[in-house]
Design goal:
The chain is 37% helix and 16% strand. By secondary structure, the protein is α/β, with parallel strands linked by helices. The chain has two domains: 2-174 and 214-237, NAD(P)-binding Rossmann-like Domain (Rossmann fold); 177-212 and 241-272 and 293-322, UDP-galactose 4-epimerase, domain 1 (Alpha-Beta Complex). The protein has a seven-stranded parallel sheet, with helices on both faces. A two-stranded parallel sheet has the order 7-10. The model is unreliable at 325-330 (pLDDT under 50). The chain binds nicotinamide-adenine-dinucleotide and uridine-5'-diphosphate. Residues 6-7, 9-13, 31-36, 56-58, 73-77, 92, 96, 114, 116, 172, 174-175 line the site of nicotinamide-adenine-dinucleotide. Uridine-5'-diphosphate binds at residues 78-79, 174, 186-187, 190, 202-204, 209, 211, 245, 267-268, 271.
Length: 330
């Protein structure tokens, strides 16, 4: 197969490129580096089955040659990132998804949407099954991401029903692992980077809110199987073992051996109180379930971040707008 992966220089996108290449497929990676980095795909330079295009997918584009799949992962994904880039996030979820669907339709390719557990908002059903419609504040700060993803699911289903495009929708639950941007602001990278830098670990609120953390290798395997063998209905892919944010902080302190303290900071508005996927659909349809427990995944992730200690990438966060010219085409 030859597939286009948008968001290829990001955390998940880069691992997904590796997964396709591992099975002998050809990959065209597309990214504008707004939250990703060339470092994540540097190891693919010189691979004849990998090609890279620098482009903002919110602007339309043409990809030469045949394509069997279009996997749309481009979007800021960390709450701090998308709150800093609200309009860009809405655009890549709406215009970007429309453009990516257009490419899939023109090429007769299968389309794959990276959606999110955020479509469930602050959920009133627990754990969350795919049949749950969600509890989203459509005008709150997080809505730029949640509603963009809900729109992207809607337009994906419309292309399926109206144009007969073969589509897939994955709802990804909190995933962590090597190649996360150290200062992207998500809880796992934050806690590890803080611990390794000897900074205080910042729990937002009282730390009783829960998340269910999936190691990247498990997540990418689920995504790959869904692309290959799934159907068009949304599918949760995540690890159903639930932890409080405080438990996560304590585990990171223990595993890094840091002398950092754990401190409290204000809870962001509309921060979901609980989150845990029901993965019955993925288990039965794909024969998939996660294998790597949080403790083991954290050990591997800590190892990765240890390798970055002392580098520019571990330095305090700088504004995203300064990192990358949004909308540039090279
Ligand atoms: P990431 O920020 O590491 O990667 C996103 C990539 O998309 C970056 O390389 C960024 O530069 C690129 N990008 C953003 N806007 C773009 C645009 N307009 N044009 C081209 N490239 C653009 O985030 P991630 O964790 O790898 O997330 C990948 C996808 O998975 C996102 O769609 C996200 O919403 C979804 N997702 C991730 C998680 C998770 O826990 N990691 C959870 C739910 C959903
Ligand atoms: N969080 C935290 N400290 C941090 C970063 C995040 O306590 O330094 C909390 C955040 O408020 C949320 C959970 O950790 O309750 C997960 O946050 P993240 O940004 O990783 O992703 P979300 O699941 O909210 O999209």
């Amino acid at each position: 197969m030859r597939v286009l992966i948008t968001g290829a220089a990001g955390f998940l996108g880069s691992h997904l490129c590796d997964r396709f290449l591992r099975d002998g497929h050809w990959v065209v990676g597309l990214d504008n580096f707004v939250t990703g980095t060339p470092d994540n795909i540097g190891h693919l330079a010189g691979n004849e089955r990998f090609q890279f295009v620098r482009h903002d997918i919110s602007d339309s584009t043409y990809v030469a040659g045949k394509l069997d799949g279009v996997l749309h992962l481009a979007s800021p994904a960390s709450p701090i990132d998308y709150l800093e880039l609200p309009i860009e996030t809405l655009k890549v979820g709406s215009l970007g998804t429309h453009n990516a669907l257009g490419i899939a339709k023109a090429k007769g390719a299968r389309f794959f949407l990276a959606s999110t557990s955020e479509v469930y908002g602050d959920p009133l059903e627990h754990p969350q099954r795919e049949s749950y419609w969600g509890n989203v504040n459509s005008i709150g700060p997080r809505s730029v991401y949640d509603e963009a993803k809900r729109f992207s699911e809607a337009i994906t289903m419309a292309y399926h029903r109206t144009h007969g495009v073969d589509t897939r929708i994955v709802r990804i639950f909190n995933t962590y692992g090597p190649r996360m941007r150290p200062r992207d602001g998500r809880v796992v990278s934050n806690f590890i980077v803080q611990a390794l830098n000897g900074e205080d670990l910042t729990i937002y609120g009282d730390g009783s809110q829960t998340r269910s953390f999936c190691y990247v290798e498990d997540e990418v395997e689920g995504i790959y199987r869904l692309f290959m063998n799934g159907d068009h209905m949304p599918t949760n892919i995540g690890n159903p073992v639930e932890f409080t944010v405080r438990q996560l902080a304590e585990m990171v302190v223990e595993l890094t051996g840091t002398r950092s303290s754990i401190i409290s900071e204000p809870l962001p508005q509309d921060d979901p109180k609980v989150r845990k996927p029901d993965i019955t659909r993925a288990r039965t349809m794909l024969g998939w379930e996660p294998k790597i427990p949080l403790r083991e995944g954290l050990v591997r992730t800590i190892e990765y971040f240890r390798g970055l200690v002392g580098t520019e990438r571990m330095a305090p966060r700088s504004p995203l707008a300064a990192r990358s010219p949004v909308g540039s085409v090279a």
